[in-house]
Design brief:
It comes from Roseicyclus elongatus DSM 19469. The protein has 366 residues and is an alpha/beta fold. The chain is 41% helix and 20% strand. The radius of gyration is 20 Å and the shape is globular. It binds nicotinamide-adenine-dinucleotide, 3-isopropylmalic acid and manganese (II) ion.
């Protein structure tokens, strides 16, 4: 029998709330003969509270062994005063770095039922389907030197943007491979007009293209202009490849094209393991949403769609991923909305649990 191991790290704030809904989906697949070997552990503030560290070494070791990790969200005001080295976010960054999850796939798709809900005009977003590939293990998030020190009478804060050729080339390949399965276009975004690392980024992406993927249509854009184009006419894009920090910003922007940050899933993929599948962590793009945590208001769809990505990329269960995505679409078409998706007159929000239950019911009826 195939074993499918999954480590669940619910984390903080709304993380455990949205993850509880994913558990219902996993249990439902279990009833259909698709069993997952699920273990659960702590990350972020929850791990700090229990162990004094945002990621225990044992949890890190477990994450390296399983087929896939599914994470809710980390962080929150309770941890704001903590020393930087033990902040909840450090636990997530350690997972990404030590698992070497260099390609972060953040798809932004606008479901028909939500086209009216975006802050942009309906015809700008209807049918939108773009994929942002964010480099996740390097750049200014990890470059040295870094820190805060004293220079004479004043403090100086330092972070370093650093990219090697091989780091750029491997994430570029991920983007080109995805383009092959999609509309065949990649737009690479950097700021080669002001940053040397941007010049190298542009050159290496072009070289990988010319040598290995000449059939893909490649364009380059400065990231600030890219942000403008994403709001002006997002449907011009298919795959966008960009660095760690620009990717963080551009994917939050892209989230709002789809209606809500509560809708956007992500997959963070690394090199293939012995079984041929990539090392992988799946998580919603959103954070722990302290403003709504504990109120049953969170939209679980981003986390549920992240599990759909796990089915597709880690377990070779593309048909099941499609089925889950269709169930989400059907529930939205029925008019079900968590509070973040309201705005249409006369609609009453459903709770996090009600949304999860409705998706399971659609799966069962499909
Ligand atoms: P956030 O994504 O948590 O929240 C931004 C806004 O979006 C809030 O108004 C929130 O209520 C709303 N929102 C987010 N997810 C939602 C959902 N599923 N359903 C409904 N509404 C949702 O970002 P923030 O407020 O800037 O950050 C809060 C904390 O989360 C910080 O500690 C931050 O570092 C952390 N964070 C963690 C992750 C992660 O774990 N991957 C990602 C982003 C932020
Ligand atoms: C994200 C988050 C993280 C990031 C934080 C929580 C470390 O904003 O996943 O988008 O900046 O990468
Ligand atoms: Mn972010």
């Amino acid at each position: 029998m195939t074993t499918r191991s999954l480590l669940i790290l619910p984390g903080d704030g709304i993380g455990p709330e949205v993850m509880a809904e994913v558990r219902k989906i996993i249990d439902w697949f279990g009833t259909q003969g698709l069993a997952f070997e699920v273990s659960e552990d702590l990350v972020g503030g929850a791990a700090y509270d229990a162990h004094g560290t945002p990621l225990h070494d044992d949890t890190m070791a477990k994450a390296q062994e399983v087929d896939a990790v599914l994470l809710g969200a980390v962080g929150g005001p309770k941890y704001d005063a903590l020393d930087f080295s033990v902040k909840p976010e450090r636990g997530l960054l350690r997972l990404r770095k030590e698992m070497d999850l260099y390609a972060n796939l953040r798809p932004a798709q606008c479901f028909d039922a939500l086209a009216d809900f975006s802050s942009l005009k309906k015809d700008v977003v209807a049918g939108l389907d773009i994929m942002i590939v964010r480099e996740l293990t390097s750049g200014v998030y990890f470059g040295e030197p870094r820190g805060i020190h004293k220079e004479g009478n004043e403090r100086v804060g330092i972070n370093t943007q650093r990219y090697t050729e091989s780091e750029i080339a491997r994430v570029a390949r991920s983007a080109f491979e995805l383009a092959h399965k999609r509309a065949g276009k990649v737009c690479s975004m950097e700021k080669a007009n002001v940053m040397e690392s941007g010049i190298l980024w542009r050159d290496v992406v072009q070289e990988v293209h010319d040598a290995e993927y000449p059939d893909v249509e490649l364009s380059h854009m400065y990231a600030d202009a890219g942000a403008m184009q994403l709001t002006r006419w997002p449907k011009q894009f298919d795959v966008i490849v960009t660095d760690n920090l620009f990717g963080d910003l551009l994917s939050d922007l892209a989230a709002m094209l789809t209606g809500s940050l509560g809708m956007l899933p992500s997959a963070s993929l690394g090199a293939p393991m012995a079984n041929g599948r990539p090392k992988a962590l799946y998580e919603p793009v959103h954070g722990s949403a302290p403003d709504i945590a504990g109120q049953g208001k969170a939209n679980p769809i981003a986390c549920i769609l992240s599990f759909a990505m796990a089915l597709r990329y880690s377990f070779d269960l593309g048909a099941e991923a499609d089925k889950l995505e269709k169930a989400v679409e059907a529930v939205l078409a029925d008019g079900l909305r968590t509070a973040d998706l309201l705005g249409e007159e006369g609609t009453t929000p459903v709770s996090t649990a009600e949304m999860g239950d409705a998706i399971v019911a659609k799966l069962a009826a499909s």
